[in-house]
Design a protein that fits this description.
The protein is of the alpha+beta class. The chain is built from two helices and eight strands; from the N terminus they run αβββαβββββ.
């Protein structure tokens, strides 16, 4: 009986070894995808260059009913599409004069804004400007004919600010 028990143990051991050794016989393979690159794009608006630009419109020695019309090229100089807004603010001069001036902004013959220069705040101009695309805006600023003697000798320095964000930014109201 000892002999049968030993043979049984040897058979069980061989079976266990066979199962274990058999698990090392499976074929395997591996592939690698190396050097995957992730890069952020750039969002850059220019009028016509990025950052601070020189004045594009200047008028002096104005009288009531005078106006000036000037084009400004807005450029997408980044790699991402954007939407943008324009605002005006007085940086120097007289509030009285700043508050009386009228402005009409058009793009490709379509009126974008028509109102007081002082009321030009966060006006959406475009909602999808592709990389490398330029847009020409036409600004017509007018000194109303209703302006009286109180405006003689007054003036104002105006800054136009163009803010851009990704076209997919849901945080901007259209």
């Amino acid at each position: 009986m000892k002999k049968k028990a030993i043979i049984s143990l040897v058979l069980v051991a061989m079976l266990a070894f066979g199962i274990g050794a058999g698990s090392f016989a499976w074929f395997t393979s591996q592939a690698t995808s190396a050097d995957n690159v992730f890069e952020a794009g750039t969002l850059k608006i220019g009028v016509p260059n990025e950052g601070e630009n020189t004045a594009f419109i200047t008028a002096s020695n104005w009288a009531p009913n005078d106006s000036i019309t000037q084009d400004l090229v807005v450029k997408n100089i980044g790699s991402l599409a954007y939407k943008y807004k324009v605002s005006a603010s007085k940086t120097a001069g007289d509030d009285l004069f700043y508050n009386v001036l009228d402005v009409v902004i058009t793009k490709g013959g379509t009126e974008i804004y028509n109102g007081k220069l002082s009321g030009l705040t966060d006006k959406v101009v475009s909602t999808d400007v592709a990389s490398g695309v330029d847009e020409t805006l036409t600004f017509k600023v007018a000194f109303p004919s209703t302006a009286g003697n109180a405006y003689q000798g007054l003036g104002a320095t105006i800054k136009f600010v163009f803010d851009a964000t990704q076209t997919t930014n849901p945080g901007w109201a259209e």
